[in-house]
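Protocol step 6 of 9: fold each sequence in the batch and record its structure tokens directly after the sequence line. For illustration, a two-sequence batch is reproduced in full.

Sequence one:
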Amino acid sequence: MSPSLMDIMETQAKLSKIRWDYWRDDIIFSYQWWFLIITFVILFIVWIRLLDKSRLLIILLFGFITLNIVTFLDTLGGELQIWEYPKMILPWGPRILCIDLMISIYFMLLYQFFTKWRSYIFASIILSAIFSFIFEPIAILLGIYIQLSWSHFYSFPIYILLAISLKWIVEKLIKINNLTKG
């Protein structure tokens, strides 16, 4: 017999309670929780100070598209049990919104400072290597991230592809916007 919507809702209610209990008892105020909060706040302050206010809307558009895609991919990977985040800022919602926001900020900085395609691609490769081979292993060591059936080597080309695709999409949107203006 296949599960009903009621079965799914009851299981979801149990899962929500378990998530809350786990978060309350094992996560909030842990060193990992503080690490995520503090690193996000520092990065956000740096980003605000470095932000090119004259390009605010375009950079924010880039950031919001990035955040949506990264959050979707993170949620998908968690749901498919490819990876897990045992330490999260909040017990519900996107599994690791804090890190998704940080990735978006780094990508916005990349977009802001590397406007030419050649330098952007080179910087994307460097940033992708940092994410894949430095930040992910650190997150594993800190107990923030667990790779279940994933590898840093899979992340590397995905970050590159993501960065290049995002720049292409935003530039196309800007061209379309400019064409409709005039």
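Sequence two, same batch, same settings:
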Amino acid sequence: MCYIYTIADVEWGYLNPARGDKSPCAADLWGDTHLLYGSFVKLPQGFEGEIVAKSNEFKAVVS
């Protein structure tokens, strides 16, 4: 299965809106967050915290 997205397709939202721009952001791409799904997570510069993955298939891209 192949998914192709343009930057215009990605809708970002704060994971913790109370923290505003200090909060990590996420964009759901496909699936159901209670089952199988794919998403992007964007961490603000200088973010310190814990990342919890509920899957044995967690991939990250760092730039």
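Proceed to step 7 once all outputs are recorded. Observation for sequence two: The chain has no helices and three strands.
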